Amino acid sequence: MKKHKTNPVISKFDSFATEASKAMGSTAVFFDCIDLGLTGPVFDYSETWQLIINTGTTIVTFLIQKAQNKNSLALQIKRNGINSLKLSQNSAHQNGLLLRLPKLNPGL
């Protein structure tokens, strides 16, 4: 597998996105969003209010999506490792490189 140089800016952004997505899932942030949504009538649903709501939603969605993509990639790498391990074990069994041990009888 190729080893890529890690860009420090991307690394910091990944770290930020992960931490932000964790924070966005908290109860306090949920209630803050509810409070912000309830301020609509106070500001008469002005264009500025709508801009703030839409911008915040877009940013949060992007950060959560970034963190989920990172988690999906890590999971796929783990699955690939397990599959290659299974393939190599099957190959070793087929080539007679591993001993097949009899199953033990627990009743004895």
How is this structure best described in words?
With 108 residues, this protein is mostly helical. The chain has one domain. 71% of the residues lie in helices and 0% in strands. The protein has three helices and no strands. The chain has helices at 8-24, 27-38, 47-94. Helix 1 (8-24) packs across helix 3. The radius of gyration is 25 Å and the shape is elongated. The mean pLDDT is 77.
Summarize the structure.
About 0% of the residues are buried.
- Ranges where pLDDT stays below 50 over 5 or more residues in a row are none
| β-sheet strand percentage | under 5%
- Cα gyration radius (Å): 25 Å
Number of strands: 0
Name the helicity range.
over 70%
Mean pLDDT: 77
Order of helices and strands: HHH
Q: What is the number of helices?
A: 3
Largest sheet: none
Number of domains: 1
Q: Which word captures the global form? A: elongated
Category from helices, strands and their pairing: mainly alpha
C-alpha end-to-end distance: 48 Å
Chart the SSEs and their pairings.
Layout: H1 8-24, H2 27-38, H3 47-94
Helix pairs in contact: 1-3
Pick out its properties:
single chain; 108 residues; mainly alpha
